[in-house]
Design brief:
Strand content: 15-25%
Largest sheet: 2 strands, antiparallel
Shape: globular
Number of strands: 2
Distance between the termini: 45 Å
């Protein structure tokens, strides 16, 4: 509501469902989890924020998890390791 009008206009053109699906499918290809730099290598035409902003929705929906592990990225800073959330097996 308090965002600049340009943010609202940009949001109208972003298909978040498609981006979520793309990010989720990419994360699924890394059995040991991946960091943002790995996803950005796959989606070279997309801005950093378009990719990493999908994590929150995917986490909230229970599709992925933050493993708690951290790996060094290109900038030599730690990045979260995101991984497909496996369904719990019934006991």
């Amino acid at each position: 509501r308090e965002s600049p009008d340009t943010s609202h206009e940009a949001a109208e053109y972003v298909d978040t469902t498609r981006l979520e699906q793309m990010v989720y499918e990419a994360i699924c290809t890394y059995p040991e989890g991946c960091i943002s730099d790995q996803l950005l290598d796959r989606f070279k035409g997309f801005p950093y924020s378009s990719i990493t902003a999908r994590y929150r929705a995917l986490l909230d929906k229970g599709f992925i998890e933050d493993t708690g592990e951290r790996r060094k990225g290109r900038s030599n800073k730690n990045q979260r390791v995101m991984k497909k959330l496996e369904p719990k097996q019934p006991e």
